[in-house]
Amino acid sequence: MSQYTGVAVSPGRVIGTIYSMAPPVAEPPAGDTIPEGADPATEAARIPAAAATVQATLSRLAERAPGEGKKILEATAQMAADPSLSQTAQGLVTSGGKSPERAVWEAGDQVAAMLEGLGGYMAERATDVRDVRARIVAELRGEQAPGIPERDEPFVLTAIDLAPADTATLDPTRVIALITSDGGPQSHTAILARQLGLPAIVAAKGIHEFDDGTEVFVDAGLGTITDEVTEEHHRFAAAWTELQENPLTYEGGGGVLADGTRVQLLANIGNAADAQEAAAAHADGVGLFRTEFLFLDRDEEPGVEEQAAAYAEVLRHFPGQKVVVRTIDAGADKPLPFLTDADEPNPALGVRAYRTSWEKRSVLTNQLDAIAAAAKTATPGGAAIPWVMAPMIATVEETEDFVALCTERGLQPAGIMVETPSAALIADRHLTVCDFASIGTNDLTQYTMAADRQLGSLAHLNSPWQPAVLALVGATCTGARTAGGDPQAYGEEAQRPVGVCGEAAGDPGLAVVLVGLGVSSLSMTPRSLPAVARVLSTVSLEQAKDLAAQALAARSAEDARDAVRAGLPILGELGL
Ligand code: PEP
Ligand code: MG
């Protein structure tokens, strides 16, 4: 029996067969030639045949792939059908005596360089050419194609980590669970798995010890993978399958606890398409609108009008509801050439997020002008109510400064993200000068544990179940009560509203703990809304407080999670 443990990032319990991600195709050695005496024409003819096989495979995969993945696969299949790569490669075999593998490799470089020279859209296709050439080389060698294995039956995918292109082609009807040996809980792989509702475990060291074809039980709520599959495991997996067949639904109106206590359930979004999806999922508003989408990949700041139009596009999906707009969070994992310094030795501890406004004030003030303009845009059904907040606040002076900028523009409520231990520990003083707080548990965890959220090797430290992180959530809520507030002001309790918008809010067990600690709204990927609402409905506020106390008193993140899971039988019943 072998068992491996990693960090659980998206729940679900499945039994399936492991297949690992194929390694990247190795470059054929320079100077690789066709065997002596071989006929160059026959060797060259293997190239279009291999390209045709690759094209057929990609087209077959495209037919059943979902959304964006379908488009990517179709584009790559088209590229495989394009004769220029094949013809260039055949020429290198017939006239230069190169091996078909080496010829395809070099031809790929030539075609990619040519496309890059053309610039714009054509340059973007260079990546497709390199992908196609790797596939053709694998086909010529009789090796497994690079990337996600092409299997007809559903399987458990194991990988070191996934590249963005692989994640785009991940088909959740084929891949029933995802396990990586690297990657952290905030890696794009983990975030994508949560968006897809795909059971996932990251940082599972040793997972590659399992041979392809091994049957395993994956408990992505706990983070374990074992090849000893028991009767009980079959029952758990059946509950999860049942949940997939009869998914939970969320009809809006907030999460209602067993005693009638209400908690706002909001969505995390990054653009207008996400806003539409969140509205369709009945989110009660937006708890985190990450505005970086407009700024990333730009060499210059977008103009106020362009920003206002983009924000209005998002706001119109939530007439009369709150949309928490976070001002630009540049730096660290989101560098911006016109705003952040690429040479900082410690970017996560550097001039990032709100701090960039110290030197380059106008980027923030322009953005606030744009949000204020968007808020005034007439929308059918009534305007959304933007709640504006700044990321990475540490001192009360910063909060005062940000609130003043918002007030000058008529933007109210104005709040802060609690992402630093400093903001959590003196939350009472922050919340005396601002209207609300939203806890970003992703950053709060990395700063509390002094562990880079992007490092797979520190994934076990980067868990929001860490009792120290939970203590800081509790401290923020205590501070909010001390600061007080007008019970009528925002339709919330007699405390300044405190939400959680980090990934922790979408974990149903942790959601109960957060509510027990005093959090009044939870914001998450829309897919998590039904499970969070369902699990919340099984506990009273008193029970949530009791579970929160147990988690706070635990010695470790694992003990905290185990204690809470033991007190929430619904998780097992749902296969979560
Ligand atoms: C967070 O830090 O928890 C958060 C929500 O912000 P981001 O993940 O965008 O840094
Ligand atoms: Mg953050």
Automatic annotation (TrEMBL):
GO MF entries: kinase activity; metal ion binding; phosphoenolpyruvate-protein phosphotransferase activity
- Pfam families the record matches: PEP-utilisers_N (PF05524), PEP-utilizers (PF00391), PEP-utilizers_C (PF02896)
- For the Phosphotransferase system enzyme I N-terminal domain, which residue ranges apply? 5-125
List residues binding phosphoenolpyruvate: 290, 326, 442-443, 453
- Domain of life where this protein originates: Bacteria
**Co-factor(s):** Mg(2+)
Q: Which residues bind Mg(2+)?
A: 419, 443
- Subcellular location per the Swiss-Prot or TrEMBL entry: Cytoplasm
Catalytic activity, as annotated: L-histidyl-[protein] + phosphoenolpyruvate = N(pros)-phospho-L-histidyl-[protein] + pyruvate
Q: Name one GO cellular component term.
A: cytoplasm
UniProt keyword terms in alphabetical order: Cytoplasm, Kinase, Magnesium, Metal-binding, Phosphotransferase system, Sugar transport, Transferase, Transport
| Keyword ATP-binding in annotation | no
Domain PEP-utilising enzyme C-terminal, residue spans: 256-538
Q: GO biological process annotations for this chain's record?
A: phosphoenolpyruvate-dependent sugar phosphotransferase system
User: What does the similarity note say?
Assistant: Belongs to the PEP-utilizing enzyme family.
Q: What does this protein do?
A: General (non sugar-specific) component of the phosphoenolpyruvate-dependent sugar phosphotransferase system (sugar PTS). This major carbohydrate active-transport system catalyzes the phosphorylation of incoming sugar substrates concomitantly with their translocation across the cell membrane. Enzyme I transfers the phosphoryl group from phosphoenolpyruvate (PEP) to the phosphoryl carrier protein (HPr).
| PANTHER family, A to Z | PHOSPHOENOLPYRUVATE-PROTEIN PHOSPHOTRANSFERASE
Q: What is this protein called?
A: Phosphoenolpyruvate-protein phosphotransferase
**What is the organism of origin for this protein?**
Candidatus Brachybacterium merdavium
